[in-house]
Write a structure and sequence with these properties.
This protein is an alpha/beta fold. It is built from 18 helices and 12 strands. Helix 1 packs across helix 18 and helix 4 crosses helix 8. The longest helix has 27 residues.
Length: 510
């Protein structure tokens, strides 16, 4: 059966990555705090919970630079829920003083959680039901899981060195070499597979908990993947790499009003023609898994499917590059057939050409509108001002890459601040409320508000500053902020704006 297009239902949602939830183990996860946040969304009459990619973060702790495009992040596995299943003792699941409730400290959090996940594995592997469950899971997910488990085991054996620095046979993913080394890392592979089993079970439990309460999950699929990842290592033929496994050209975006040197992301680029001949198998497997986890997914850097910026790998900036054609219609025809629908939101920010817009519209995908982008240029034609919106779009006060609404407004020049107030109404002290009201009362089918903006927080709560390698992805929701009064206020504005979805239960939610 074709999937329904949930993004055409007039509704509202909140953007908050699970690591930003409160909790005693260094970062938020899929356990009690996640279920409590779903309850908050229900009371606030929100239909969507949007997350960033939920894969294991790699360099820079970024979920957009993950160690795998398929695996779930071990950081999101709930230790409390493992204790409830009998795989951790109460003492093992207790928090450590070295992990304060504030910003995520990734090295300490990784150490804390990995140590306990290994204890849970040692306890589980001695029990026949768990051994059987793990064997079944590995067989079901073999298309990606075995390579990922082997990659993680070899990565650990090489003390974190990236795969393209390993000895040539392992670097080339040579089957004979891998067959020789597998017996030496069998137990490590089983551990990494076990972590993915636990992630999958806890994710499904959260998904069902949310679905029963009519909260849909919106995920995020980055267009590019990390060079040092199990995907690149296992599928080198699908990427533009030299004989050593190094990229000859890399991804980025050209210079624009925000950066005179552009952005050199550094991700390897796809051999799109080869992928087309292979039926886009790797991509379709990736999207299928994403759509199994989420009710809809945001396609990051959608403009790259029409054309992408190719930079020579030796270049230090993105100034010198060229546009190359993306996979375009053929890719989305293949995806629509495989998925029996296109449950996507197109992140079409950046240099949006008429061809990009036409591609998105041909496949009926909603694009993005960001209020913070609405106060530059001609107000009659700026696509980010609500009076120019089409109905089928998703409006944000700001995304994870933006300043918070309060921080953004404080940094504006006086004339622009006046222009914002003239358009949005209100006073400087309540600018976040004014922008949220603009988003919710717009014609956009879906209005998405970062949790930081609902709380009126400044730039100290910002999630990411693009182009900066450190200090990102660490913000956490302080305990006690999802209080009933805030939920009721959000719910009232959501109802007033006509964004309580038609199938939402009538009356107040207790």
């Amino acid at each position: 059966m074709t999937q329904p297009d949930l993004t055409r239902v007039r509704a509202a949602g909140v953007l908050l990555h699970p690591t930003s939830l409160p909790g005693p183990h260094g970062c938020g996860d899929l356990g009690p705090a996640a279920r409590q946040f779903v309850d908050f969304l229900v009371r606030a009459r929100q239909h969507w919970w949007q997350m960033l990619p939920v894969h294991p973060p790699g360099k820079g702790d970024s979920p957009y630079n993950a160690l795998s495009a398929f695996a779930g992040s071990p950081l999101l596995v709930s230790l409390e829920d493992l204790r409830r299943e009998g795989l951790l003792t109460r003492a093992e699941a207790a928090p450590e003083a070295a992990l304060p409730p504030g910003a995520v400290h990734y090295p300490a959090t990784w150490r804390h959680r990995n140590a306990r996940l290994r204890r849970a594995y040692e306890r589980a592997i001695g029990q026949p039901p768990w051994r059987e469950a793990l064997a079944t899971f590995r067989a079901q997910e073999a298309a990606w899981l075995e390579d990922h488990a082997l990659y993680r085991a070899l990565h650990r054996a090489h003390r974190g060195r990236p795969w393209y620095t390993w000895d040539a046979p392992l670097r080339r993913h040579d089957r004979a070499a891998l067959a020789r080394i597998k017996p030496r890392v069998t137990r490590q592979m089983a551990y990494y597979a076990f972590v993915q089993l636990i992630f999958a079970r806890q994710w499904q439990a959260l998904r069902e908990y949310a679905a029963e309460r009519k909260v849909a999950l919106l995920g995020d699929v980055p267009i590019f993947v990390s060079h040092d990842s199990s995907d690149l290592w296992a599928h080198q033929e699908e990427f533009i790499l030299d004989a050593r496994g190094l990229p000859t050209v890399v991804a980025g975006v050209p210079p624009d009003a925000f950066s005179r040197t552009g952005q050199r992301w550094g991700n390897p680029l796809y051999r799109w023609e080869r992928m087309r001949r292979g039926g886009y198998r790797w991509w379709l497997n990736r999207l299928t898994l994403a759509c199994d986890r989420f009710d809809a997914v945001r396609l990051d850097h959608f403009i790259g499917f029409q054309r992408y910026w190719e930079i020579q790998a030796r270049s230090r900036t993105a100034v010198h590059g060229r546009f190359r054609p993306g996979p375009r219609d053929a890719f989305f025809h293949a995806a629509r057939t495989a998925l029996r629908g296109l449950p996507f939101v197109a992140e079409d920010l950046g240099i949006v050409t008429a061809e990009v817009t036409a591609l998105r519209e041909r496949f009926g995908l909603p694009g993005l509108r960001v209020l913070q982008f609405g106060f530059d240029g001609d107000p009659e034609r700026n696509p980010h001002l609500p009076h120019t919106y089409p109905r089928h779009c998703v409006v944000y006060t700001g995304t994870h890459d933006n300043e918070t609404a309060v921080g953004w407004f404080k940094g504006l020049a006086a004339p622009t601040r006046r222009r914002v107030l003239d358009y949005a109404g209100g006073t400087p002290g309540e600018i976040h409320d004014s922008l949220i009201r603009l988003a919710l009362t717009s014609v956009a089918d879906l209005a998405m508000v970062p949790m930081q903006d609902w709380l009126g927080l400044g730039n100290g709560a910002r999630m990411n500053v693009p182009g900066t390698p450190r200090g990102n992805w660490t913000w956490r929701l302080p305990p006690g902020q999802t209080r009933p009064g805030l939920a009721d206020a959000i719910g009232l504005l959501t109802e007033t704006s006509g964004r309580t979805a038609p199938h939402w239960p009538a009356g107040p939610v207790s």
